[in-house]
Amino acid sequence: MTATRARARLGVLVPFTNTNLEPDLAMMAPAGLTLHAARLGGYDAEAIPDAAQMAGLGLSELDEPLRLIAGVRPDIVIYGCTSATLTHGPAFDQALAARIEKTTGAATVTAAGAVVAALRRLGATRIAFASPYVPAITAAAIAFLSDCGVETVARAEVSATLDNEGQGAMTPDEVARLALTADLATAQALVLSCTDMRAAEVAARLEGETGLPVVTSNTALLAEALARVGVPDPIRGFGRLLELPR
């Protein structure tokens, strides 16, 4: 790990319209962890974030944001969009992480990979899946998780087609109501997928109401990042994933 004034420097690659990933990480991160972000383009901010848009983000040019994030010499880099790699599959997700690691010299965690790692840490192989995605992205996410040994037994989707701003504008109460529309009877965990959805704020509440562990894109990212850089602190208030030993 790089010698720094902090315990660890966390580099964050975040889609340029995303307004919730950085606040979530700042809200949850333990003392001594510093956050340094670079924005990602490659999609139309005004268009519906459908499968084509998110697949395009996954394929977008990364040379400049990687050069910029490497400038802070991060100990780990987070790739902060779940659907950008969910739409391409696990092999693409792993290859993208390897490319970021090679370019920046830092360990790398993707949002999709972190969700899979979180479910393995919790021992969950059957999940309910909730997101603000269009149905085609949800289907791609379910296929991605299936390829990683995770069966989706229920899904919950928003009734309206949300644009980028609309996804980020969902309130925590709206996120909780969405999650609770899924049939949780046979699920071992509840996954709330999207780094721009305010799910971390209701993860602990939903665990209390459902009795299931709740994994959000952003709690999964932070849990995996902390494990990779050796920060063991349990973090309270955002679900049992962040309370587990690392």
Q: What do these coordinates show?
A:
This protein has 246 residues and is α/β, with parallel strands linked by helices. 42% of the residues lie in helices and 18% in strands. The chain has helices at residues 21-28, 51-58, 63-70, 83-86, 90-104, 111-122, 135-147, 164-169, 172-179, 203-210, 217-229; strands at 8-15, 33-40, 76-79, 107-110, 126-131, 151-157, 189-192, 214-216. Strands 2-1-3-4 form a 4-stranded parallel β-sheet, with helices on both faces. The chain has a 4-stranded parallel β-sheet with strand order 6-5-7-8, with helices on both faces. Helix 6 (111-122) packs across helix 11 (217-229). The longest helix is centred in the middle third of the chain and has 15 residues, at 90-104. The chain starts with 7 loop residues before the first strand and ends in a 17-residue tail after the last helix.
Any chance you could write out the topology, listing elements then pairs?
Blueprint: E1 8-15, H1 21-28, E2 33-40, H2 51-58, H3 63-70, E3 76-79, H4 83-86, H5 90-104, E4 107-110, H6 111-122, E5 126-131, H7 135-147, E6 151-157, H8 164-169, H9 172-179, E7 189-192, H10 203-210, E8 214-216, H11 217-229
Parallel strand pairs: 1-2, 1-3, 3-4, 5-6, 5-7, 7-8
Helix pairs in contact: 6-11
